[in-house]
Amino acid sequence: MASVKKDDRLTSSQSFMCVGFAGIFSKAVTSPLEVVKIKSQVGTFHCKRGFWQSFLLVYQNEGLRAFWKGNLASCLRLFPYTAIHLATYKKIVHLHMDELGFISQWRAIFAGGLAGFAAAMMTYPLEVAETRLIAQSCRQPTYIGVVHTLSKIYGNEGLPALYRGFSLTLLGAFPFSIGCYAVYMNLDKLWQEPPFRFTPLQNFINGCLAAGVAQTLSYPFETVKRKMQAQSARLPHFGGVDVHFSGMIDCFVQVVKSKGILSLWNGLTANTIKIVPYFGLLFTCFEMCKRVCLYRNGYIVSPLSYKLAPGVDQSLGPSELQEAKRYLKNRGFESSLGNRW
């Protein structure tokens, strides 16, 4: 859901860095909501009295820094996830292109699904580390830092522990995709106009709405996944999980039996509230970084606006534009492309 429109005026490294910085900043700002959400999913004692009381209990028992537990693991996961996803997607799309370079919509969706699976599989241990760091108490920590968490889980519980609950990532992808599809298929009815006429604000609202519906439908799978990631017989109170179970299906059964079926959506309030600021900050930061890069590449006159540089062909790629600049400069025509050159 956190996608941005590709701009050919940026280099691959610039696009990667813009996405990475925007993701890190938005995750850091919304981390308190993420901590409360994950604690609610795991079932720690902090979240027994509702959404607002959860913040107070976390602060009283663990201090302010507790709201950024696991944030480093989450941010570190961004870069390899994005890199693996993009590389895998490009490779699969290239294999399925016809002789004219086209690919069908369903094959593109299939490529995106496989790319997401590969990226999730390679970075899943960092998600487990994030959950363990959030679920533990800052006052009596079992883990200190991301590397220590990963090494201790591997040393005490083995490699399978770093992939506990991974199958739920795949299972949750189905209701998530259905939710996205249902929203986007009805956008023209919602706005009473075709999609190509949507404004940036409408597209932002569409993204938030699709994220809200999709995440709500797939939320029970994520709740069980977080419980499986957190639970360990080697940790105090079994990792803080509110039910004990022997596997994925047993976890569903125990949660519904002891807490009720609605407990599978514990933390949904924090997750829903997080959507708007997360996506808002994500796209705002991306656009700010993008303007800086476009200014450095010579496409716009200032990093504070999108006013185009006079005489610059916006269809040229960064390398082509630099080559054209060098050619015209050697010919003595650099003034025709603007004084900045």
UniProtKB/TrEMBL annotation:
Keyword DNA-binding recorded: no
Swiss-Prot/TrEMBL Solcar repeat ranges: 14-95, 103-190, 198-292
Biological-process GO terms, alphabetical: transmembrane transport
Superkingdom of this protein's organism: Eukaryota
Gene3D superfamilies: Mitochondrial carrier domain
Keyword Transmembrane: yes
Topology relative to the membrane: Multi-pass membrane protein
UniProt-listed Pfam families: Mito_carr
A single GO cellular-component term on record: membrane
Protein localization: Membrane
Keywords per UniProt: Membrane, Repeat, Transmembrane, Transport
Family membership: Belongs to the mitochondrial carrier (TC 2.A.29) family.
Name recorded for this polypeptide: Solute carrier family 25 member 43
Species this chain originates from: Cyclopterus lumpus
